[in-house]
C-alpha cells in the first residue's frame, strides 16, 4: 500500500490543439518546443487514484487538452479532449464503458481514438476512422504515464521505471503538485544542489553542511552526476540526471536517527509541462528498508515526516513561482551552476533537433 500526496490549484487555460502531426500540420519552432515540453518521451500525467472508474478527467499537458478515462476492465485511456465531429470537449460527454459519447451530437469514440458510432448519421465516413488523437498509456508506481509523440509516426520507446521505483527492496510514497512556473525551472532547481544549504537551511534534513563548495560533473552512460567534491553525505550534496524512458532526477539526502530505521532518504523527481507557464511536479520519496523497519518507516513517514517534506517543497515552489518566465535569460552564473548550464544545453539541443524533425515530417506530409 502507498499513500499519494496531492496538492493542486486548478487554473483555467485556453484550449489547445495537439502539437504533433495528428489531425493537423502545425509547425513548432525550437523556442515553442523548449517552452511547452520536449516530445518523444514518457511523462507522468496524473496519480492513478485521480482517475476513478466511470469518471472522465480532463487534463492539460504540453499545452494540449486531454481526457483520461478507465474502460470496463479498469484500463486507462488518454484521448485528445475534442470530438472529431464539431470539436466539443469529450470530457463533458457520457462514459459508456469502453468509449465516450460526445454530449453535443452523441458521436462515440473508443479508447483508441476510433469513431465507433455516429447516431445522427449511421454509416457515414467518420465511423471506423481513427479521428481522435490517443496516447500510449502505462500505469506504474501509482501514476499514469503517457508517451507524448513528436509526429504521427513516432514509435513509443519501451517503458522503464527509474531504478528506485522498480526495486522491491525500496519503499516509496508518491507526491503530486501543480506549480505556476515553467517546467524547465524545476529541472534548473534540482540541478542546483547548493540551494539546499540556503533555501532549505532550516529544514529537518538539510541543516548541515557548509554554505560554500566546489562541484564537478561526472558523466555516466545514462546522463550525468552533478556533485560536491569536498562534501558528501551531509546535505543535498549530489544529484543525478537520467535519460531513460523518461527524463528524471535522482538524489539522496541523509537522515538522522530521528527519522527511524533504514537507509538514506532518496528522491525521484520529474516535471511535466502543463503549458508554457505551469508545471505538474511528481516526486517519489524513497527509502531502502525491509521487514519491521519498512513498516516503522512507513508509519513514521505518514505521521511525522510527510508534512515536513511538504514544507521543503513549499520553499521551492514559493521561489520558483515568483520568478519571471524569462528569469533564465538574464543571469550571471558561476561554478555552482555547472549543472544548470549542462541541462539547459541538453534541452536546447533537443528542442532544435525536434523542431527540425517536425519540420521535415510536416514537409513530407504536405508533399504527399
From TrEMBL:
Residues 1-10 have a biased composition (Low complexity). Keywords: 2Fe-2S, Iron, Iron-sulfur, Metal-binding, Monooxygenase, Oxidoreductase. SUPFAM superfamilies: Bet v1-like, ISP domain. Its EC number is 1.14.14.-. Residues 42-146 form the Rieske domain. It is an enzyme of class 1 (oxidoreductase). InterPro entries: Cholesterol_7-desaturase, Rieske_2Fe-2S, Rieske_2Fe-2S_sf. Pfam families: Rieske (PF00355). This is Toluene-4-sulfonate monooxygenase system iron-sulfur subunit TsaM1. It comes from Gordonia insulae. The lineage of its organism: Bacteria, Bacillati, Actinomycetota, Actinomycetes, Mycobacteriales.
